[in-house]
Amino acid sequence: MIRILHKTNINFVKLRYVFFAISGLVTLTGIASLAIKGVNLGLDFTGGTMMQVKFDKPVPIGAVRSALDAAKVEASIQSFEDENAFAIKVKGTQENVNQKADEIIGALKTIKDASFTEEKRDYVGPVVGRDLAKKALFAIILSMFGIIVYVAFRFSNPVWGTAGVIGLLHDVFVALTAMSLTNREIDLVIVAAFLTIAGYSINDTIVIFDRMRENMRNFPKMPLAELINLSVNETLSRTIITTMTVFITVLVLFLFGGSAINNFAFCMLIGTVTGVYSTVALCTPMVYQWERRSHK
Fold first, then answer.
1. Side-chain half-sphere CA neighbours of 129 within 13 A
2. Model confidence over 116-156: pLDDT tens digits?
3. Of the candidates 75, 121, 146, 288, which lies 20 to 30 Å from 6 by C-alpha distance?
4. Which domains does the chain have, with CATH numbers?
């Protein structure tokens, strides 16, 4: 395997209180942001106006998006290329459907050398989004329980599974905090990003836990703090390589992927960084802290 670090000897256990303080500060910041600013829920959760228009000739979706952005109309756009049609959704109440539709029409009229006809104008309620959100929440809770059971069975210790779940919850909450602080819209795509972050986080944690288990067999008399530091340092090169590969890929999407996936890419950028941080600086030190107190 390619290595970019050789024989590191960082005492992660010794620095655990610094890591705990950083995470505590970030958590408090997130709680304050959610309490004061809240989150910017997307149309999936709030409802709004849906208009379907058909152009007389092919029009690129970029032109439609640019026209709406120029008119300061924040919209979700779905393209039907075979029909030269677009479904445009804008957040709003049922009472202002016509107002929002007029704003969309006004923006589309600025597209040069293209005429269109309105095929549909309707209000889209948040019922479907709420139902999917409940299912997503249920999936998250079920997956947390499954992770605890799996890790507890695999490593014969429920503490390890609990530490892994706390770590991935930390990562998802940090990503949610970043979305709140930047006032970025949260829709079902972002819910998918949260689930992806959770999976990425626990995967990295299990890799280190695996190395800890191997070292326990190889060095049965080694103190736990020393064993944890050895395991994390041995896997640090692999962790950095994996993280940088994902980070660079997501960064390209964030910079050049366009507005349609910008929020998703931003959320994944935060999650990629916190996923590594929680594995190295939270999960393994939490295992040490718990084991140390339980053996007093």
1. 17
2. 888 888 887 776 556 766 776 787 778 777 777 777 777 77
3. 288
4. 16-41+128-294 (1.20.1640.10), 48-124 (3.30.70.100)
